[in-house]
Amino acid sequence: MTPPRDASLVYVGCTAPAKAVLETLIDHEYPIEAVVTIGPEMARANSVSGYASLEGVASEHDIRVYQPQGYSMEDSADLDFFQTVDPDLLVVNGWQRLIPESILETATYGALGNHGSAFGLPKGRGRSPLNWSLIEDRDRFLLSVIHLDPGADSGDVLLTRKFDITGFDTIETLYYKVTLLLEEMLLEVVPQILAGTLERAPQRGTPTYYPKRNPEDGEIDWRNGTRSIYNLVRAVADPYPGAFTFADDQQVMIWEAIPFSSDIAVDAPAGTIVAVFWTDEFVVATGDGTVLVRNWDADDWTPTEGSQFDTPSAPPTDRIDSQDHHTNLSSTTDDA
Known about the structure:
This protein has helices at about 15-25, 40-45, 55-60, 75-85, 100-105, 130-135, 170-195, 225-235, 325-330; strands spanning about 10, 30-35, 65, 90, 110-115, 125, 140-145, 155-165, 210, 245, 250-260, 275, 280-285, 290-295. The protein starts with 8 loop residues before the first strand and ends in a 6-residue tail after the last helix. The protein is α/β, with parallel strands linked by helices. A hairpin with a 2-residue loop joins strand 10 (about 245) and strand 11 (about 250-260). It contains nine helices and 14 strands. It has a seven-stranded mixed sheet with strand order 3-2-1-4-5-7-8. The model is unreliable at about 315-335 (pLDDT under 50). The chain is elongated, with a radius of gyration of 22 Å.
């Protein structure tokens, strides 16, 4: 089933995964009438992680491109654009702001977005659900295509698919999985929406919300357990700002680290560099073992055996990714 050729879709996005999904829709000859994206300056000003302009792809296929006045699209000129196009459907992907209700109402069949969590909506609404799922050591993710309403991830569910989160995943590989599933899901639901045959299911249960993550939340507390540190590093790696630590006030970015052993350097205080190898990889003591740091960078620092990373001033339990937050989802699953 394919959409009718006289239908009109507007695609909204500004990230690399959004670009990949757009290319798939174009390959399947979906009637994209216009693409809404932003330029690099606006992306930097709004700290868009994984930014990619969609302008090149759209121009290559003679699709109209619109760059809004602001990322939140609250300018009257932005509303005028959507009213002028008068689309049948908006497809929003990789746009880290709520779409104003006035713009959502310009599309005959409304707007599609996507969101999810380890337990499925309404659990895990809000910010960075993929990052949080790694930090919380979840082993699955339920991705839903939803009908966007003015709320945060509160719209009706149209279709849900599950994928595994393995112990080898990083935030980048989770986006690979989301991209593949979302392409399949949009190809399935868009024709049904335009035909008026797809039923919508309201979200049921008590919502939970993930809080916003900031770059400073990536600081490593070596007193935490090995698994917790491993999860933080892989959750905030590229394209996100990255995990980091300090050595005598020198910031050291930790881009890749893996559990090493709980039987090596058992008496070393957490944060101690217990070994440095010929590859510049090094081993650090944690609260319950050691991790091997495989990819790192710093402006003016090299690892030295026996040296110690600084301890964050805040105790581990005060951190935004603390065990207290870990219970945010698991303690409320019964009313789903």
